[in-house]
Amino acid sequence: MSLIVRNRERFERTDVPVPSAHRNLIGAIVAVAALAATAVVVYLAWNRASLESRLGDSSLSDAVTTLAQYDEAGPSGGYAVSEDDISVTLLLTAESLDETGGTLTAARILSVNATQGTAALVNVPADLALTVDETPTTLAELFSSQGCAACVLQLGLAAGVSFDSVVLATGDVIEEAAQLAGSGSDNLVRSASGFLSKIRTNMDAAGLLAFAERLAAVGTANLAVSDAALVAEVATNEDGAAAETGRQTLDKTQLNVAIGRFVAA
């Protein structure tokens, strides 16, 4: 019996792989690497989609379209509407890009005159008086309660101006926007990811690059910066007489002069 056992052991195959701890470890490492690679791909795809969603914002596009249906302010005595190629952009700065509930920190109206090669930047106070649905409010309050899109329409009406584009940002991005000039729309998301993470706009990639080109052609150092001219708000009191409310609204004529839309007749 012992002889048979020895013979069997002598002829057992030696090419059969034997499970080892190293083999299991290598398999685990490969599995983890595959999961990590998948996670990276998913993250990059999600990040690209998130950045692309900052362009062509539908709510801002709708607000710009709605505002365009209203007549712009007409010039008063001594002024005429300029025939120059002027584009007007509303720049709003807030603590976040949330739809509502954010805090407005700055509002500016930027006009670029491609004909003259000039540009103007007008600061609008956040506590500017507005009246929405017969209810007194301010620009900052409207931004917090109804969001950026609501401000586009109401500020445009208060200014008597139609905005060609709107940019909501978490900081001053004028310099960064101008630096986009010369970029390609195909690789904009990749090349300007830092900039796009700070904004929401109604402009698509091509529109944003066209905006950058116009701004860069003038030069951000050459912006004519001013504060919006304000006038006392007047309303009818209980006696039916006109009286100041203690709030301030935009002087439409002087604002349109500041952005170059009105020129001396």
From TrEMBL:
Transmembrane segments: 25-46
Keywords: Membrane, Transmembrane, Transmembrane helix
Domain of life per record: Bacteria
Protein name: LytR family transcriptional regulator
